[in-house]
Design goal:
about 120 residues; five-stranded antiparallel sheet; alpha+beta; about 25% helix; 5 strands; globular; HIT family, subunit A
Length: about 120
């Protein structure tokens, strides 16, 4: 999967599409998912053009990586789900059911999330 500059997250970062922003810094953006799968469903994305976790860990700077990981914890705190718990998910590639070719982490919480994965 290669990076597509017209993907929905690239368009949000350019300001072509709106989002319900939760938090932002120089390297990351966090916003509400438009199709929530839990009472709290927030997406955290890097501002750089990274396709997936492998691309990000191989090519992003240490500063970008640190900001991204810190934002996940920060957003969980803002959402009030650190005490009750939450799940962080990143889908990667076809087998991982990645739909958007831009690295993104789903933060899910606000209630019981259910089993990790369904069995095949």
């Amino acid at each position: 999967m290669s990076y597509d500059q017209s993907n929905i997250f690239a368009r949000i970062l350019r300001g072509d599409l709106p989002c319900k922003k939760i938090a932002e810094d120089q390297h990351t953006l966090a916003f509400e998912d438009i199709n929530p799968q839990a009472p709290v469903h927030i997406l955290v994305i890097p501002k750089g053009s990274y396709v997936d976790w492998s691309d990000f860990t191989c090519n992003a700077s240490v500063v970008e990586q640190s900001a991204f990981v810190k934002m996940i914890g920060h957003v969980a705190g803002l959402a009030g789900i650190t005490e009750s718990g939450y799940r962080v998910i990143s889908n990667s590639g076809n087998d991982g059911h990645q739909e958007v070719p831009h690295l993104h982490m789903h933060i899910l919480g606000g209630g019981a999330i259910g089993p990790m994965v369904s069995r095949c």
